[in-house]
Amino acid sequence: MKDLLVPFTQVMTMKNNFQALLQCFFVDSLISQQQVSPDTVRSYRDTFRILLKYLRDEKNISSTCLTFEMLDVTLIIDFLKYLKETRGNSNKTVNNRLAAIHSFFQYVSYENPEHISIIQKVMKIPFKRIEKKTVDFLTEEEMTLLVNSCDSSNFQGRRDRLIVVLLYNTGMRVSELVSLKRRDVHLDASQSGTIHIFGKGRKERIIPIWKITSSYLREYFKENSFRNDDYIFVSTKGGQMTRSGVRYRLDLLLDKASQSCSTFSVKKLTPHTLRHTTAIRLLQSGVDLSTIAIWLGHENVNTTHQYMEADLRLKEKALSQTKEPTTENYFYKPSKDILSFLDSL
Question: In this structure, which CATH number among 1.10.443.10, 3.40.50.720, 3.40.1690.10, 3.20.20.60 belongs to the domain 140-320?
């Protein structure tokens, strides 16, 4: 990577060279300075891959001939419209693509301020409105049934059970789950322990685990010989388990649980559903939002506030503490003289 910095810096003297600007944006800004996560790099990379392909196929503009001046506000708006109407992307996906473009333009504003007129117009492109969806989570009874749906008589079933319990206990993201290594789990003599999680934006946090979680982990480690650098969750082929692999296993559990509980038939079970469930349980247990935000690895506590809105039990509790209105022989009688009424205010 360091070897790439020299030619990139030299090429930067060639103003309007889009390729040089984009390469320096990734290498100098995202990777070296901001040290964003690999997932962010991949997401931004995909945005510009799609943009360059769009310019080639729809606008007949080759990446080798592309200059920064060509990326005016009209072209970017056309690209966002293409994402929505031709590729069928959701508003959330379109917003993610626009965020990557905004980040690149912000970088160019520092490196090549002579482009500020183009940059300011593109930076003013608004994000699309996203409808607020109801947070899906499982009840305590549904969680118990889900865990009991795991077939503990075979390895896959025991692995499924550990996945479900770990996701529920820690509230970790699926990307964090599949990245767990043996060295990240610390089990102590008291039959409990902690999980060291490496989250988004290279942020780290340590989460305590229940004794039952510790018990499942000890059993799992006893059954499998792991070295410190080994991934805990592996596929049947022996490689690191993927996020889609976890979702597939949860889909199987949902089908099985639906046979015993009708509520599962109308629910969508994803790793994020279990993450939401963890947050709701913490909230119902009286844990404050700031602690829940730290627990889940939220950068902003406003992200955690959605669980306050989702929890019906807390709303019912708040309502029970509020007195109902009374109608004690009071009736409003409007004044015939509107001016007198206004003067009385």
Answer: 1.10.443.10
